[in-house]
Amino acid sequence: ERNSATFNYATYHTLDNLFKGLDAIVLDFKSLVTKQQIGTSTEGRPLYVLKFSTGASRPAIWIDAGIHSREWITQATALWVGYKLATDYGKDASITSLLNKFDVYLLVVTNPDGYVYSHTADRMWRKTRAPNSGSRCIGVDPNRNWNAGFGGPGASSDPCSDSYRGPSAESAVEVKNIANFIRSHGKIKGFVSIHSYSQLLLFPYGYKCTNPAHYTELNTVGRSAAAALSSLYGTQYKVGTICSTIYQASGGSIDWTYDIGIKYSFAFELRDTGRYGFLLPATQILPTAQETYLGLKKIMEHVRDNPY
Amino acid sequence: VKTFVGHQVLRIKASNDDQIKELQALEGLTHLELDFWTEPANIDNPVDVRVPFHSLQSVKSYLEFNNIEYSIMINDLQTVIDSEKQEMETDNIK
Lengths: 308, 94
Description:
Strand order of the largest sheet of chain B: 2-3-1-4
Distance between the termini of chain A: 41 Å
Shape of chain B: elongated
Strand content of chain B: 15-25%
Largest interface: A-B, 25 and 28 residues
Radius of gyration of chain A: 18 Å
Oligomer: heterodimer
Largest sheet of chain A: 8 strands, mixed
Radius of gyration of chain B: 15 Å
Largest sheet of chain B: 4 strands, antiparallel
Low-confidence stretches of chain A: none
Helix content of chain A: 25-40%
Number of strands of chain B: 4
Mean pLDDT of chain B: 96
Number of helices of chain B: 3
Structural class of chain A: alpha/beta
Shape of chain A: globular
Low-confidence stretches of chain B: none
Mean pLDDT of chain A: 97
Strand order of the largest sheet of chain A: 1-2-4-3-5-8-6-7
Structural class of chain B: alpha+beta
Strand content of chain A: 15-25%
């Protein structure tokens, strides 16, 4: 499985195998893709991003998956998206044009400790594996730990809760590493976080129930991405702000990125709706990845064509 | 390894805001050890909740008492997890 073309993208993998998949892509597309470590997790596992780049000092688009470890379809989708981006460069005019102007950073496993734990001990594990001082309960919900309305409604202060926000914003090292990377890069123009499930395409805000300044544009882009996604298999997505579409939730990643000036901040909630939940069968990995790629592509094209 | 034998995932459809409040109250009953896969927020989105075997009867009674519609989305979570694991192992061998 060291060859990216023969790697089996249609199955769920352990963390080690996913990392082999990353290495295979890097090895096969040396002139386009490099692997960077942006930090380590609580338990010392590397946070690897694939960087797709054809030049220096470019603006960039960030894509991450697997911040909630049990959402296995997201890590599987992200790996396939990485392979697809690499193979489409030079063949697909739109991706070629995108990568001639922008870098793309792809973090396939945002929460590696949780991912390993979900494979080895508790399939339903969602949080990080950080110990909480004074509590027997482990882990922080890394999507309640960003510095956006931190501590507000829709996050828990109880370390035993699955939506525990942590003691302070960016206390989760996984979140801190990404936030530091985004801040130090300085030219991230699009940020997409991939979650599952319930088929939604969301944009800010979640920590408050007011519309963002760019609501009309984000809504239009979101609807266009959802239509592109739906064009392949008819999968229906709802589009809207986090608060209006699901519920108020503070400390989320895309609220933070939007508030620091990354206008095009979106979150996908991939399949499914009502049969398997977090246990989407492996037969659905490729269809999910293929349709998600079309949605991602629409967003990335909009970022490319609308500089700010 | 944590097992989920007998755990069911229920899909609950609230029909009004009062039922949403009842579901939010259910969320607060920590002794039931419920795991909300999707949370009660509005009537447009169904609520999916993993219910451990020991809480099934209480949760179903609660829903029925409050006239809240539900269906069983996953009958035995461990069976699905086992089949997922088996599939991964087979693919690995391949």
